[in-house]
Amino acid sequence: MDSIILGFQEVAQWQVIAALLIGAIAGILVGAIPGMEPAGAMAIALPFTLTMEPLPGIILLLGCYGGAWYGGAIPAILIRVPGTPVNVLTTYDGYPLAQKGQPMRALSLAYSSSFVGGVVSILALIFLAPFMAKIAAKFGPPEFAAVMILASVSVVLAHHQNIRGAILTFGIGMFLGTIGFESPHHTLRYTFDQTWLLGGIPMVPMVIGLFALSQAFILLETKSPPKVPENLATTGRFVGLFEVFKYRATVIRSSLIGLTMGLLPGVGEFGAQFLSYSLARRFSKKPEEFGKGSPEGLVASEVSINACTSTVLVPLLSLGIPADPLMAMLLAVFMVHNIVPGPQLFVEHADFISGLYISLFLLNVFVMIFLLIFTKYVVRLSSISPRVIGAAIMILGFIGTYTQNFRITDGLITLAFAIVGRFMLKNGVPAFPMVVGLVLGPMMEGRIKQTFSISDGDPTIFLTRPLAAAFLTLAVVAVATFSWNHFRNKTAEAS
Q1: 266 falls in which pLDDT band (50, 70, 90)?
Q2: Max CA-CA distance within the chain?
Q3: Which residues are listed as membrane-spanning (predicted)?
Q4: CA distances from 162 to 96, 227, 286, 430 (A)
Q5: How far apart are CA 397 and CA 193, in angstroms?
Q6: Distance CA 61, CA 44 (A)
Q7: Which of 224, 311, 463, 468 could form a disulfide with 262 if both were Cys (CB 3.0 to 4.6 A apart)?
């Protein structure tokens, strides 16, 4: 009870309230503009959050992250263009439903579905994170090293559409993580006598280049904005608000899928959405309506997406391991303020954790109310010229990069990764594994060194400790399963 009271005191600060409102609105706007992604918005906001207090900085980034999934449903439903990549299945039933003359029903149904998924996700975070932290308290270096190996494997296998590209970019990210001053042995690695490389490759310029400026290049190449409805009637804005509860089985199933997928590194919203939609159609009493304006299909898509939004925090808070690059950005905010995620976080910073839970709930409530009132104004953002948006992202990106350390080299790093990111987007090479590799690589290296130090260089320590052996076994099984399925598919295609 004391921690809850302290949590409310944390949230009651004006900085937290301002960060919550600004982050939520920014996330909604990012989702409502086709071509924008929450990763790009978070990358631009990251340098500014590093100078803020921990809770406001975290909430600002989470507002951009969570609000974008809500806002992404707007263009998906009205113009059949997903506002964010994960809203692609929302177009399947949301757009046909809007074409039937029920756009506000579709939008309010999407909002309420997102709200239900978001609240369920927060409740799961409240119960799962402390539970996993208690288990992690028993971990030693071998267990942490093994779980990081499992996380690395999961991130790579999650990009099964381009597994070679994922392996390549993850490997590059791990290599980049070795650059700079190595503290245990006091050696310099790959610095080539350049003092600006002593601290390694900074993550902020990297994520801004890969996710923000690379997307800006694409927007600058886009000539005309999509057509949006000029007069969106606000009548019936509450029609679909409670309709979500008519599909209780779909809500429960999609929530469980979203919660599970959110815990798996690299899987997240994409895997949850497709699996949830497929199962909803299979068990539906009216499967023939899916893809033609089925409310149940819209519910399955939106619930599963937002059920991931808080559970992705579980590995970060309890183990200190980011499940994706978005969580890696949050980890940067933690580390700047010397707050180390892990088992001790729930003991040493209980007020912060309670404040985080309360802020996440308030975030969902505010986004829901804001969209129900201001949707007709938010819709107009979809008609802004993509070139204007791209130019604004370029300016904000370079300002954010430079103002972090006031170094020209950071701007050059950002430009280099922007060019690399544009090439990767054009050729379908995933960029997420590179950032995860940059963050996980040094962490994994440190834990492995600690493991060999306590075992006098004996690698069998991973097999003699049950938890470490279990994590490594899961990693091997995952690789073996993927390899077998890949080989079987190739054989079937050849025959």
Answers
A1: low
A2: 72
A3: 12-35, 55-79, 109-133, 139-158, 165-181, 201-220, 326-346, 352-374, 386-403, 415-441, 462-484
A4: 31, 33, 34, 8
A5: 28
A6: 10
A7: 311
